[in-house]
User: What shape does this take?
Amino acid sequence: MTSTSDRRTKMPDADLIARFAAIVGADHAITDAAEQAPHLREWRDLYVGRTPLIVKPKTTEEVARLLALANAEGIGVVAQGGNTGLVGGQIPRESGHEIVLSLTRMRRIRSVDAAGGTMTVEAGLTLAEAQVAARTAGRLFPLSLASEGSATIGGTLATNAGGVAVLAYGTARALVSGLEVVLADGRVWDGLRALKKDNTGYDLRDLFVGSEGTLGIITAATLRLFPQPEERATAFVALPSLDELLPFFQLAEAQAGGALTVFEFMSGELLSFVTRHIPGTRKPLAGEVPWYVLLEISSAAGRASPLLDELLVKAAEGGLISDAAVATSLNQAAELWRLREAASEAQKGEGGSIKHDVSVPVGRIPEFLVKAAAVVQRVCPGARPVPFGHFGDGNVHYNVSQPPPMARDAFLALWEEMARAVHDVVVSLGGSISAEHGIGQLKREELVRVKSAVEIELMQSIKGALDPKGILNPGKLLS
Assistant: This one.
């Protein structure tokens, strides 16, 4: 079955470019190559695209007019938020046929209902701005990523991003109650509902969340807000070996229950990368250990610190941890968080890095780490796995840095072979080849390999029904 994603879209001529530009105004229609450049390259430099035009609409009505024109003329449209994606989903293809629709001007906070626990915001608002808006209203919007200063609400919903608080609050999908979406033909679906229960047929919201801009363009969302924790207790913990990782998590869950809001793990070698390459960072604990955990307990005032202390004492008595640094101030907590948040950035200093965003059942994470390390060595002897991730939801960022003597290009040439080998381990353990970054361009062929024919056909049928001309993010997600 041929996907509508692969149907050829045409290059817009000068007259058509002028018609697109007229919708948003000349100041918000970018044709200059230098001004376009930041929108056409993703930060790992894996994908660099071309486009005749970048448009920056201000309103949903402008988005609708842009898509109606693109659909009528058969022009491909790539929606883009903060350009923080890691699989090339937000980058136009090298053919240069597609226009880029940047939503960064759509950043209005339409309403905040603190009592009802919701706020409605536009797609171009950053996660950090959404967090501030919620906090100003005395509430919490818990979606948190290392890139939250530039990642947008629309982009994180389009990819169903997870982040560090999934353990307690769920992925982006769980944090949205309603959407406003512009369809391929320019029609607008107004699903901005603040309901916790709505059992009236197919859940269209869940259809668009995670669809990577291939079914419609999210222009606004009603987000779920939560009570602000009165106290947070943060610790950076050393583990003597991989064998203690799962039992320590199980103990933390049993001791803290719903108050356990963060349980992030990282390898000792990755921590060395961070302190070596990220200015202002230092190891919070003496010595060298193979694994570390950053954990956080959030609760009512006076409860978090005692819970954390009791957990660490029991873990130490049981031989599950070898040392721990407990933050005694907000600044110290921020320093500990910086060690985890800089994990991706630090790997650039070690040369080429082959990255895998995968998930496996929580109880099988240690097994995955052992088996994946073995296949990596078969593909590239001397390569250095530096895994980290969100242990509580099974999401492992299984990144592999090049052997120091090896040329970067020679190492990166092994990406497909290594990805296939790692993904085979993931699938054998009942896991997923994409936990939170999506499929984009990077994993299109792998998706077909690991999904059943029935799943692929169902997805292609949905795509064909909602975007019959294949104008929305062509060449992404579906092969």
